[in-house]
Design a protein that fits this description.
By secondary structure, the protein is mainly alpha-helical. It is built from 16 helices and 7 strands. The chain starts with 25 loop residues before the first helix and ends in a 5-residue tail after the last strand. Bound molecules: zinc ion. Zinc ion is lined by residues 5, 7-8, 10, 24-25, 27-28.
Length: 369
């Protein structure tokens, strides 16, 4: 039976989320625990780590995996201008780059940063996106592997052991936390298991060989150990809120938002702007797990005390089921699908516990409440 967290709006259909006996999800518990954190102490820990792990030679102090969005730009900006570090920004190219994201990247780089952008073989990227859209209802499986792998490959190649990721998704948004340590230092086994689901070496087929998969294959453990790569979550050391990050970045540069005023499926206009495929990705979450992009955004704000559950509920009801029309033609073209083929794949991924076919249409079996 589908249940919604009594504090936020997250349903128990979200993979790995846990509910307590009172019907409260673990992301809400995590948010509550965060109120007890001594942030001055965390900042001290941060400064200690930086001193311990920054390289003694070379121009860069650390790597920031950087999309050009509000979160990674916020991190890079603070590292450089508040803490005097010189971060190297590493970008794994979006599948279908969105103009808004490109504008923001250019503006931010203009503030004074070095960037490496990796754009993998597009024939391979498209083939994998199409395959995983069909097989798993997620065109971003390979991209997830790339975005997790490329910064570590660069860290190894350039001898820059320190990497700052944003937040630990499993504890921030509801999931399975392997250990207290994994909220601070990134555990790649967890990433592989939870986000990617298998080893990219398994993706070899009659048109893709192992060399084609190089951007997706994590470096050998011996190389990681040689450089001593430490991938930390910035959100462990400093209070984390996507709304606050957006406010911060808007103060330091003219941050471009979704020109239509809000993104498909939600009420926000400042998040996930760099890849046109994201609108489809969030819609598929709604199809498979019953929570759309508006629920996702509202939960984050409710947990941070920036919105009431009632306000969130109203927004989720209004926008969650909205079809990602804005970039629909780009999605079809990129995935090489006709409209009927596309819809047939979507319908295959409808969770039968959540959806029923009534009359001529798909209806949800439950109401969000
Ligand atoms: Zn909750």
């Amino acid at each position: 039976m589908i249940l919604f967290c009594k504090k936020c709006l997250m349903p128990n259909t979200r993979p790995r989320v846990q509910f307590d006996a009172d019907g409260i999800c673990n992301a809400c518990h995590n948010a509550e625990q965060k109120l007890q954190i001594d942030w001055d102490d965390r900042k001290k820990q941060f400064l200690e780590y930086v001193e311990r792990f920054r390289p003694s030679q070379g121009p860069y102090d650390c790597i920031v995996p950087w999309s050009g969005g509000k979160d990674s730009s916020y991190i890079a900006h603070r590292l450089k201008f508040e803490f005097g570090l010189n971060p190297l920004l590493v970008t794994f190219s979006p599948l279908i780059p969105n103009e808004v994201g490109q504008i923001n990247r250019e503006t931010f780089l203009g503030l004074g940063f070095d960037q490496i952008m990796v754009r993998p073989n597009q024939k391979v990227a498209r083939r994998l996106a199409r395959r995983f859209f069909r097989e798993r209802g997620n065109p971003k499986v390979a991209w997830d592997a790339g975005v997790n792998t490329v910064p570590v490959q660069i860290a190894v190649r350039f001898n820059i052991p320190l990497i700052f990721y944003a937040e630990h998704g499993e504890s921030e948004y509801g999931g399975r936390v392997l250990s207290e340590e994994s909220k601070k230092i990134r555990d790649f086994t967890e990433v592989l298991e939870h986000q990617i689901g298998d080893d990219p070496r398994n993706w070899v087929d009659d048109e893709i060989n192992e060399h084609d998969l190089a951007p997706y294959i994590y470096p050998e453990q011996s190389e990681i150990d040689r450089v001593g790569v430490k991938a930390m979550y910035f959100a462990y050391f400093f209070r984390w809120s996507m709304l606050e990050n957006y406010r911060y970045i808007s103060k330091v540069m003219p941050f471009a938002t979704e020109p239509k005023g809000r993104c498909d499926g939600t009420f926000t206009n400042f998040d996930s702007l760099d890849d046109k495929i994201d609108n489809l990705y969030y819609y598929l979450q709604f199809i498979k797990f019953g929570f759309g992009r508006a629920t996702r955004d509202a939960c984050r704000m409710i947990q941070n005390g920036q919105m009431t559950r009632e306000e969130g509920l109203e927004l989720a009801r209004k926008y969650d089921d909205e079809f990602p029309q804005t970039h629909f033609n780009s999605h079809l073209e990129y995935l090489g699908l006709s409209e009927p083929e596309f819809h047939a794949i979507i319908d295959q991924h409808r969770n039968p516990e959540l959806w029923e076919h009534r009359g001529n249409a798909w209806k949800l079996r439950y109401t969000l409440e």
